[in-house]
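seq as requested:
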Amino acid sequence: MAAVFRFGIRVGACSISAYICVDAVVHLFKMKPLNNHIRPLAACLTVCVIVLAFCAQPAFADKAKRAAGARSEVAKAYVSPINGAVSATIRALNTQRGQTGQRQQAKVNVGADSTRRENRFLFARAAQDVFTARIELIEEQSVIDIGIYNMLGKKVMDVYRGYSSRGQHDYTQAVPDLPEGVYICIMQGSDFRKAEKFYFSR
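struct tokens:
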């Protein structure tokens, strides 16, 4: 910008100086009236101003662009406490949303993996002095042990012990002397152990 102004000033000064010198010489030798020289001088000044404006226009545009960029950088650099809090909240929500999505995806994956059938109790209950346990096995068991335990972990009765094929099975046992209360039926095989709580009431 400064270089353009200096160039324009030099061009204008040189033009005016050249005109004045030439005009002075012509005026001295030809003795023309001074009024005849005003128009050419004004035209010369006008041309200098136009040249200066034309040269300075790109510089002004570049300066305005740099100023706008600096203002935008300052605006980006300045963050009020409210804007900072809002931005932090939005980032936290986005992070939480991403973690929730990952957990949901993990749950979906776990659910897909857990669709594999396992040895399990379908139910265990006692009614009219008869205990019934319905189980489901995914593979045959050479020895399976089903028993009733009290809440202290002591075995109070055997329900079944022996071979069992895969699939669903019902095992029953008369419990005429079993006191009322809460019990646990435990099924144990070669590589698994399952428990089912039930309440016995007469």
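The beta strands are 120-127, 130-137, 141-149, 155-164, 167-174, 181-188, 193-200.
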